[in-house]
Design goal:
It contains 5 helices and 16 strands. By secondary structure, it is an alpha+beta fold. The strands form 5 sheets. It has a 5-stranded antiparallel beta sheet. Helix 2 crosses helix 5. The longest helix has 14 residues. This is Sporulation protein SpoOM.
Length: 257
């Protein structure tokens, strides 16, 4: 191996390349992610100290009336010990891991992707990005279906900075709904945040009432019109759409009095 070849490889020219292929690009939290990492050796022999997969997303931080996008790592997975890749050698490495329960859904436009990286000393680390479509977990989907059965219409789903909620990640995904005709004039919007458990889901509801009269305007100015409530659903309840819808309606109606 010439000095010139080593120098080129250190800046990524003639170096090893990586390509990750997923068995299925559409998943739900709790599903097993399976795929294969394909490594193709470059023009020189290279030692790879490790191969890692990072599950990534983006969230919004609001600061001084500005929305600033941030990148977050949902999970990091190491899939192999150090190895040596010879020139033009092809190595296939199958992998699997469980998609974390707090992975956000991509339905509202939130991106989720898998970043594959090769850790190579004294060189530009080759990377590969693969986007994943994430549907809501069945527990969350049962609640979303119940909300929509009450006539609420999903406006958006967005990940926002919320460290105060004490989760493992610095953000939560909020689902914002427009009210049906029965609540218009009384309810501005309904927001839901999900915290999944192995046997159920906790749902935070933010019930934002529309300001009415002088007292209503004062409440709105002081942000007292936003009412937070937590509901917990177990697996058995989530199998009964009518029970879920009834509990949601009761919680919302209690704040409309």
């Amino acid at each position: 191996m010439s000095f010139f070849q080593r120098m080129l490889a250190s800046v990524g020219i003639g170096a090893a390349k990586v390509d990750t292929r997923l068995e299925t690009p559409r998943l739900r939290p709790g599903d097993e992610v399976r795929g294969t990492v394909f490594i193709r050796g470059g023009s020189v022999e290279q030692r790879i100290d490790g191969i890692y997969l990072q599950l990534m997303t983006r969230y919004i931080v609001e600061k001084d009336d500005h929305k600033i996008p941030q990148t977050a790592i949902i999970g990091k997975f190491r899939i192999t010990e150090p190895l040596v890749v010879r020139p033009n050698e092809t190595i296939d490495l199958p992998f699997s891991f469980v998609l974390p329960l707090d992975t956000p859904t991509t339905r509202g436009g939130t991106p989720v992707w898998l970043k594959t990286g090769l850790d190579i000393d004294n060189a530009v680390d080759p990377t590969d990005h693969d986007h994943i479509e994430v549907d809501p977990h069945p527990y969350a989907q049962a609640v979303l279906d119940a909300v929509q059965s009450l006539g609420f219409r999903l406006r958006k789903a967005q990940c926002e900075y919320a460290s105060r909620l004490g989760g493992r990640l610095p953000f939560v995904q909020e689902f914002e709904f427009a009210p049906p005709p029965a609540y218009r004039g009384r309810l501005e919007e309904l927001e839901l945040v999900f915290f999944l458990r192995p046997t159920g889901v906790d749902v935070w509801l933010e019930i934002d009432r529309r300001a009415r009269g002088l007292l209503g305007m004062l409440e709105s100015a002081l942000e007292l019109d936003e009412r937070m409530q937590r509901l917990s659903f177990d697996e058995a309840e989530l199998r009964d759409p009518r029970t879920v819808a009834h509990r949601l309606r009761s919680a919302i109606d209690a704040h409309m009095r």
